[in-house]
Amino acid sequence: MARKDVKGVKKVSVKEIPAVEKPFNKSTTTTTTTTTSSKISWYEELSKSIDTALIQYKKDLASSRRLRLIDTFLAFLMISGIVQFAFCILGGSNPFNTFLSGFGACVGQFVLTVALRVQSFDKNPEIAFGEYIFASLLLHFVLVHFMNQLA
């Protein structure tokens, strides 16, 4: 049976450990069956949410002249940045600082304009516009100094 060692530790032989049988568990068996109905419902749910967002966006555009103006300026900034990047790839970037300043101005102004768009419908849009003007001036001041064109 069990014998005691000199230090008082009880040694147990393998024969003394009772065997424990595991009951069959249904959660251990996994089946991977995918149905097309879940994919269709996921696609339909995504389609409905996109349609709802577009309908709400069109309503907002129809009701707010400020939103149309901001979104048009965002589109202009995006197109301007794409044109600058394409020119850098195709035409070369001889004064690389100039490219970085121009592209940074587009990206920075885009980010600031998105922040203005988010804040323009809060309680105090005048403060949001003031912050936008200050941040835009600071951004362009830094970029002009980066270009080394300020005399």
TrEMBL record:
GO annotation, cellular component aspect: oligosaccharyltransferase complex
Pathway: Protein modification; protein glycosylation
Cellular compartment(s): Endoplasmic reticulum membrane
Phosphoprotein is among the record's keywords: no
Listed GO biological process terms: protein N-linked glycosylation
PANTHER family according to UniProt: DOLICHYL-DIPHOSPHOOLIGOSACCHARIDE--PROTEIN GLYCOSYLTRANSFERASE SUBUNIT DAD1 (PTHR10705:SF0)
Name of the featured protein: Dolichyl-diphosphooligosaccharide--protein glycosyltransferase subunit OST2
Annotated TM spans: 73-92, 98-116, 128-147
Subunit annotation: Component of the oligosaccharyltransferase (OST) complex.
Keywords, sorted A to Z: Endoplasmic reticulum, Membrane, Transmembrane, Transmembrane helix
Organism: Pichia kluyveri (Yeast)
